[in-house]
Amino acid sequence: MNTEKYIVRLSAEERRKLEAIVKKLKGTSQKVKRAIILLKADADGPNWTNEQIHELTGASLQSITNVRKQLVLEGFDVVLDRKKRRLPPVPKKLDGLQEAKIIATRCHLPPDGFGQWSLRLLANQVVVLEIVDSICPETVRKTLKKRFNDTKNTILGYTTRSR
Asked: Are residues 154 and 92 in the same domain?
């Protein structure tokens, strides 16, 4: 007898969906493995223990318990697909307006005494113009690279002034 805390009970439709995923190997490997776990853990079906499912799939016992728990608490649709992040892991340092100002600054002539813009010079100039409080040259590079195809002239290199 299975003594798990979270009992999996699948409807006929849910069972059909899971069997189709496993049969066709449709979706990511994580999705297929979760489908196998749910099929084997079904109380109205095989009703395997976590240890038996672990031997079949190679998933850790904690992962199997988490899949069972997620199905019971959050529902069938949530358990198969990864949870989407609400926020990116690192917040963006620049908004669209600030990016546009950096690109506009780059399109102007460099300060006197400089033949062309460098990333460090541009980063310092952006801080001097108070577009941002502080910025590293790598962030400037990523911003310019992201917008490289949008501009006609090269982002770094020769300026538009005649030689």
From this structure: yes
